[in-house]
Specification:
The complex is a heterodimer. By secondary structure, chain A is α/β, with parallel strands linked by helices. Chain A has one domain: Thiamin diphosphate (ThDP)-binding fold, Pyr/PP domains (Rossmann fold, 3-Layer(aba) Sandwich), CATH 3.40.50.970. Helices cover 30% and strands 19% of the residues of chain A. In chain A, helix 2 links the parallel strand 1 and strand 2. By secondary structure, chain B is of the alpha/beta class. Chain B contains 21 helices and 23 strands. Classes of the chains: A alpha/beta, B alpha/beta. Strand 2 of chain A pairs parallel with strand 17 of chain B.
Amino acid sequence: MTYIVKPKFHHPELPKNALGYTHRDYEGAVSTLCAGCGHDSISASIIEACFELSITPHRVAKLSGIGCSSKTPTYFLGNSHGFNSVHGRMPSVLTGANLANRDLIYLGVSGDGDTASIGFGQFAHAIRRGVNMAYIVENNGVYGLTKGQFSATADRGSKSKRGLTNSDNAIDLVAIALQVGATFVARSFSGDKAQLTPLIKAAIEHRGAAFIDVISPCVAFNNHSGSTKSFDYVREHNEAVNFLDFMTGRAPIHVDYAPGTIELVEQHDGTTLALRKLDAEYDVHDRLAAMTFLQHHAAKGQIVTGLLYVEDESSDLHGHLNTVDAPLNALSEKELCPGSAALDKINASLR
Amino acid sequence: MPIQSVNDFVVRFANVNGSGSASANEMFARAVLRMGIPVAPRNIFPSNIQGLPTWYEVRISEAGHLGARGGTDLMVAMNPQTWDKDVAGIEPGGYLLYDSTKPMPKSKFRDDITVIGVPLTAICNREYTDPRQRQLFKNIVYLGALSALLEMDVGEIEKLIAEQYKGKEKLFDANKHALHLGRDWVMMNVQHPIGLRLQRANGVGDRIFLEGNSAAALGALYGGATVCAWYPITPSSSLAEAFTRHCNRLRVDADSKKAKYAIVQAEDELASIGIVIGAGWNGARAFTATSGPGISLMQEFLGLAYFAEIPAVIFDVQRAGPSTGMPTRTQQTDIISCAYASHGDTKHVLLFPENPAETFEFGAIAFDLADRLQTPVFVMIDLDIGMNHHLCRPLTWDDTRKYDRGKVMTAAALETGKDFGRYLDVDGDGIPYRTYPGTHPSKGSFFTRGTSRDRYARYTEEGAAYADNMQRLLRKFETAKDLVPRPLQANANKPTKYGVIYFGSTSPPMDEAIQMLEANGQYLDRLRVRTFPFHSSVTSFIAEHDFVFVVEQNRDSQLRSLVVNECGIDPVRLVPILHYDGTPITARFIARAIGEHLDALKVTPLRKVVS
C-alpha cells in the first residue's frame, strides 16, 4: 500500500480542454500497482482520452470487478464515482447502474481472470444485451494478485514464471465479443499509447457495447521468455490492421494522407472516426470477415490490433427496452405511482 | 352417515397436469365466491408441464377460515394414477364424484362414503369428435355436475364464462353448453343435492381475490421500483411476469409511449442481484424475485450490498429445498439463509407478510426501508401465498404518501460545504449519507468497496477502522428495529401462561387453530412476528409467558433459532411446532400439535398425586 498523497498544485500553463479542465482534473490516487505495470499505462490512456474528449469528470461511472486491473479505477478520474464490485460480476453491476441513469458514461474495467474465467458468463451477456458502455479488459494472461497462476487467456503452450506449461486452450475475448454481438470491438497493447488512447475515445463515444481487449504485460509474473503476453512477445507479434488517428468531434476534418488509406466512420452522435488503414483489405464493418481474419492470424501466432469492428447504426439496451429519455433514478412518485384511483380499479377487477 | 354441511366443506379436485382442469377448477372457486361464500383454493401441483398428478383444493368456509383445513369432504377424482390415494383421503361420510364411463370393481370404492358416478367421458365422446375438445370440455362438464350436486347458483358460473370469453361468442356458447350437459345429466340421473350444499351468503364483502406474487409485483410498482432483474425459478417467476404485465398497463408514458421501467431477464441469479445492486447504487429502486436456490447463488453479492450499504429489495418466494428439490411445494425454509446471507458478519432485514394484501403493503414499504437503511431488504413470502389466490382485504394507497429516499446528499448540500463522509454516522442512527454518481463536479464522489476503507471511504486496511464500521452497522440494525412494521399481539380472553409465535402464511390457519384450542379449553396469547430484526416486544412477549410455541413451516425451527440467537432466550422456553412436508400447514395440525403439548404440560406429576 502506498501512502503518498499526490500534490494538488500544478504548472499554471498546463493545457486546458474545452471545458477548462486540465489533465490533473482527470487523475486519481497514486497507483499501488508494481512499477512498470502495463495497467498504469492504460489508466494514463483513459485519463488522456477523457481529457481530450472534454468529458465532465464526475459524469463518468467507473466499475470494476476484482483483481489488479479492477483496482485501477482508483487511479484515474478521482471525481467520478467508482465501484469495486464482486469478482467477475462487474458487467451485471454496470448493467444495473446503466439502467438507473442512462445519462452517465459507463466505463467497465476488468482483467482476464475477472472477464475470461469467473466472469465469462456475465461478460458475454452484458455484451449481447448491448449495454451502452466502454468495457476494457486489461489482459495479461495471469493472476497477479494471487501471484502468477495462469488465466483463461493464457495461450496453450506458454510458460509461467515458475516454468509450468499451460495445457489449456486460450479464450480469445475479441472473438467472443464479436460472436455475441458487440457493436465496437478493438484490441490494443498497453505499450502503444498512441494506438490505445484514440480507441478508448472512440469506445466511449460509441453507443452500445464497446469492447477493448488491451494486452497489458504483467511485469511481476508474466514478462519472461516463454510467455506470449510479455512486452517483447507482443511487440514482435503485433499485427495492427489500422490506426485510429484522431477523434474529430464535430469540428471539420483535415486529412493529410494519401487517398484511399483513410476511412471516415460516422458515429451516431455526429462525430467522425478517421481510420488510417494499415491493411488495405481489412474492412471494419464486416463482422464475419473480422472473425475469420482474427482466427487466421491467431493460428500464425500473430496478435491483431486496432479497431476490428464497428457497427454504424448501433443501438443499446435502453433502446431495446424503449425506456423513457429521463434517467429512471430521477423519476418521482408523480411519474411512478399510479395512485389510489388506479388501485380501486384493480381491486374491482379482482372480485 | 353422510356429512351434512352448508357452506363449510372442502372439495378436492384430482387431475392430470396439462389436461386443462385448472381454469375449470378456478371457475368453481370463483363461482362460490360470487355467491358470497369465502373460499380458499390451493393448487397442489407437480414440477411438470404435462402428465403428472395435480390437485386443486377448495376450502369453502362461510365462517371465513382461509387456511388449509386438512381432509377432503368431496373428492372429484379425475386421475386414475392417484385414485387409491384420493379415495382413501376422503373423510368418513364424505363424497366421491368420478367418471363412471368405465366400470370399476367394487374393491376400488369405500363403504363409508357416498359415491356419485357421472359418465363424463361418454358424455363428451357423444358430444365432441375432436380429442382435445373431449378433454377440455370434460372439465366444464364436471363443473356442471357439481353445480347440480351442490345446489350452486348456475347463473354465477355462466356469468364467469361470459367474462372469460368476452367477445368470443362461439366459445361462450360451447362452454355454456358443456356446463349444462353435466348439470342436466345429474338432474336427471342422480339424487341431488347431496349433503354438501352452497347457499348464497354475505361473507365476502368488498374483499378481493388475488395471488401473492401479483400483489408483490403491484407493491413494487406502487413502491416506485423502476429496475427489475430476475431469473426464472418456480415459484417466483410469476412475480416478475406480473410486474411486467402491470408495468405494461400502468407505467408507460402516455405521450412518448416509452417505458418508465426496465426489466431484464438475466442469465442467472448472480447477474440478477448484480443488476439490482448496480441500479440501487445509482439511485434507482430495484428488485429481484427469486426462491431458495437463487438466494444461495446471491450470497456473495448480498454481503457486498450489506457492507457497501446499497439498497436492494429481494422477493423470496420460498419453496421446499434444494435446487433439485420440490419446487412446487411450499415452505418457510430460507429464514436463516436470508437473515444471515453471505460471508462475514452480516444481518439483513426480513419482512414476513401473511397474505397478498400485506404482501402488497410490505412490497412497497420494502423500497422505503431499503433506501432509508441503505441495505438489502427481503420480502419473505412462500409458494402458498405467492401462487395461490387468496381472499383478502382490498389494496389501499394513500395518495399523499411520499417515497422515503433516505439520506441522499444533493449537489446543493455539497455546495454549502457540508461535511460528506460516505460512512460517517452524523445522526447517531448508524445511517450515513450517500451521493448518487454524477452529483457534483468536485465534491461527494467516492469509491465503493465492501470494507477496507475509513469513514470517508478512503482506502485503509486498519483494524480499528474496520471494527468502527462494523459497530456502526450494528447501530444501523438497531435503528431498523424501530422502522420496520411491529409484531401484532392478540391475547386470549383468559389469562394464560402460554403463548405462540408465528409468521407469514401460517397466519390464516393459526387464527382457526386458536378457535379450535379455545373450544377445547386451551388458551394461548399470540404474537405474529412480521419482521427481522425483532422488535423489543418479541422479547417481552416471551418473558411474559412460561412457554411459547413457535410455529413454522420448516424442519429446523429457523425462526426459533433466530429468536434464541438475537434475543438471548433460553431455548427450553420456546417449543417448536414444525410442519415441513411441503403442503401448507393446517389448522388441524397446529391445534393437534399444540393441544398435545398443552395436555402433556398439564399432567400432574406422580409425586404430587401421592403426597
